[in-house]
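SAMPLE LOG
Freezer: B-3
Tube label: C17
Construct: single chain, 310 aa
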Amino acid sequence: MKQASPNDLIILSNQGSEPLARETAELLHCPFTKMHREQFSDGEIYHSFPTDIGGRDIIIIAATPDDKSLLELVDIIDGCHHYMAHSVNVIVPYLGYSTMEQTKPGVFEIPKGITRTRQIFRARPHFTAFIDLHSEAVLNAHCGEVHTLHIQTDELVVAKIQSLGLDDFVLVSPDYGRSKWVARLAGKLDVAHTAADKDRFAMDKTMVGQVASVVFGKTVIICDDMIRTGGSIIQTADRCRDAGATEVIVMATHLVMAGNSSERFKENNIHKIIGANTYPNRQSDSLYDLYSVAPLIERAIHKQLRIQDS
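STRUCTURE (predicted):
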């Protein structure tokens, strides 16, 4: 691929990811281009590009937390092809349905983590990157026609934890499925780590048994890729306190925080949740302490498009 000039770039987003797209545009030293949207009385959505995108390198930043967001992303990708963009490059900060990448024998469920990702690939972007995937299995939901990348936030997480200035802490994974990732973070921070013993007994219900005594007398940082309802993390916090932890902090990349999750965390004496700005409409406040993934997106785009230094 030829080197791209900053003047050739157009950065777009679906509606939910506009703040992150604007921040990324600033790092790339190019303007953010806002899609024109209208909704007709029958519910149909109108989109138009406010400028000619023919021959340009398009970057679309679009989280897909719901059906509307996913469909808007697909519409924008197809629109870019219709108006003959030079390349279409997609960054998905948060991939909805990403936990549904497997099926249980005899249940005949649809693995929507795979099928929804396949809908993005079928729109034929040239490049698609995802941030902190629940499972890399979704990267294989195409036939080799799309260049994919899994952007991991490890360096940002380590820097964020170091900035807290904690003297004596351990990392805890709420289940064994994320323990390798937590162990990797712990190695970079040169601290101990452990994993909770968790069993899932219903679609949205889990039971956390116990954690190791390594947490005794320590500040605990519970690390996960996402918080959906927070049930297992709150249980893990309780087990850590039972084992002698003095304080509990929670860290997760994607802060979905469905329903009354925020209130439940506060009621359970958890007053700091560290996360990324990948999920739409999450902002730092008295509970949330957010870091930005824009530098990682800028780096991935710069490498993919071989952008000329201005």
